[in-house]
Specification:
mainly alpha; 44% helix; 4 helices
């Protein structure tokens, strides 16, 4: 239920955004990040959050595995071993946008 609510909030934020013209993948990804990820990860993806690590520059492969399926890609060694992040499969259609945003802010 909680994951569904988070997903609905993220989709509502996308639908109700006050934009002029089409959004880029980076803009869409930023909206998803701010609405679904900053609860645990920092507002600045280059910094560690309250529960989650810094994720700026996270690969598409990592995001697909972790966000959609709640697992890590084969051979990946996580920064943290807490396993607190739930899968958020309702975001599967936005993973490429999220990856574009996280890549764009990597310092």
């Amino acid at each position: 239920m909680r994951h569904t609510a988070i997903g609905l909030i993220a989709l509502l934020a996308l639908a109700c955004s006050d934009t002029r013209g089409p959004q880029t993948a980076v803009q869409r990804g930023e909206r998803i990040y701010r609405s679904a990820c900053t609860t645990c990860h920092a507002l600045d993806p280059n910094e560690a959050g309250v529960l989650g690590p810094a994720i700026a520059g996270a690969s598409l492969e990592l995001l697909e595995a972790k966000v959609v399926r709640g697992e890590y890609p084969p051979g990946y060694t996580p920064e943290r071993t807490t396993k607190q992040m739930p899968a958020l499969p309702h975001l599967k259609d936005y993973i490429a946008d999220l990856a574009a945003y996280l890549d764009s802010v990597k310092r």
